[in-house]
Amino acid sequence: MPSTTDPSRINLYINEVAPRDGFQNEAKFIDTDDKIALIDRLSNCGFAKIEVTSFTSPRAIPALRDAEAVMHRIRRHPDVLYTVLVPNARGAERALACQIDEANLVMSLSKSHNRANLRMGREQSFQQLQEVVAVLKRTPVLINVSLSTTFGCPMLGDIADDEIWRWMDRFAAIGVHGFTLCDTTGMAFPSQVQRICEGARTRFGEQQLTLHFHNTRGMALANTLAAINAGVVRFDAALGGLGGCPYAPGASGNVCTEDMIHMLDLMGYRTGIDLTAVLQAACLLPAMIGHEVPGQVLKAGRRLDLHPQPEQLQSA
Amino acid sequence: MPSTTDPSRINLYINEVAPRDGFQNEAKFIDTDDKIALIDRLSNCGFAKIEVTSFTSPRAIPALRDAEAVMHRIRRHPDVLYTVLVPNARGAERALACQIDEANLVMSLSKSHNRANLRMGREQSFQQLQEVVAVLKRTPVLINVSLSTTFGCPMLGDIADDEIWRWMDRFAAIGVHGFTLCDTTGMAFPSQVQRICEGARTRFGEQQLTLHFHNTRGMALANTLAAINAGVVRFDAALGGLGGCPYAPGASGNVCTEDMIHMLDLMGYRTGIDLTAVLQAACLLPAMIGHEVPGQVLKAGRRLDLHPQPEQLQSA
User: Fold this and answer.
1) CATH code, domain carrying B286
2) Does A229 contact B at CB distance below 8 Å?
3) Is A105:A54 a contact under the CB 8 Å cutoff?
4) Which of A121, A155, A187, B234 has the most neighbouring CB atoms within 10 Å?
5) Number of domains composing chain A
């Protein structure tokens, strides 16, 4: 807990990733109009950033085959950065045609996870992302690199800290603007998070640092506080806690936006986010995607959403 | 996060409450033999304490109407304290006949919650518990008082800190040995937990202090770390995360034992608990109670329970 720092002086910046990271994992195709309506709602919630979609091949990720339509038809809020996943130079060109603010480039620090997820070796991924950087560097578009399995790989186990710094160094050298350290399958734990975040902040002070947690083993909110303790102020989160993980069927997905904001608000951190509006948006998810979501505040209500006293006791 | 204290020097003491707090909330009656078999298993997991049952009226809580049979037939481990819920002097006599190690006395700090839960005013509860203390003081049995809604009442909202200290003072004055501060409906948040735990430790250094969290709004593990930060070393937890809350249908229950131990182990705290044995016990719950449980490590596996690489990639 930040006992020495007043939370009310700490501005936190939340990146809502449900439209990309969440919807990508849904079996059912989410209607383009529904996606746009949801993103437009999210644009008015106070998020610093929204990850809108992915410019992957529509064959690889059919769930997001409407990337262009979504990007062209959302109503942009001037205070929100609109970011998209860009896997390769072709995707970069498609994304640029849609006036993105930021491109999010993804590779895994684990050899095995990169192969399982992206069907190529890490070196090949780096080359491909280098091409993306080359395309984007001619534009004002910001470049963020998301490093999957930073806190552990479900096949190989722990990633050595030096391996994290080595890949961050390579991306820093080609001029990316930010890093997202991703706990892709919920293996991070608080003391590890604090150590790695402190290391990353010390080594890469030039780049913006974002943390991306999954709640697979229930630690996402504890990890969030550990990262804040280490000076991190930027977080990914997904409405409803969307975004599953194939290695943990039935387990929770991304850290849930409304659960995270609910806790941070109570602690006095400044997120700039309208929790009521976020909860109203989250309420729409089950009907939109056809199943319940893992988010807990949606079920339980906010801490001070009080209940009436049982009737027979009111007169007692 | 305890950045100045080495976790490996901190012994934590876990009280497993599923047999009482969990089973009490199940619609289906859990077979007496199943209860005993589970408690016998739990006795070999390294818990400091197990809350076995409740000596409430069998009409009030039929789920635990087999309190005597369970207490008489479990095989006690010499390192485990066996505690039971005792609501009144009659229950105390019944419990004493079963050679309990500790009695857990419960009242709510919220007037409305006490009425809703115990059907009486707080003063009447205190008088009744005072009678229990009078009965138990003639014996070597330890006396713990669990204070419900310490971190907020679902009907009245926040409880003033002074109200917490006032009731703790009254119980300390009649000689109880320990207090459990209960977050009965998951309203606690980390900075509040740290403040109240620091206050309680400062004021009531003579009594053992235990924290009882619910994961209703996802904050149970973050709250656990906040309490440890404030010097707390004793925690209630329920196998599988059993123990619902009528004010949050569909929400999680008590903090899940195996999820809590999984995190604390990773961080290097000494819990003395065999997580493998706990997970084996938790595995039995769904068949025993007839439904899935909220625990996440049970679904996702431990952090380093690795998965094989996809076959087509092994040769790649």
Assistant:
1) 3.20.20.70
2) yes
3) no
4) A187
5) 1
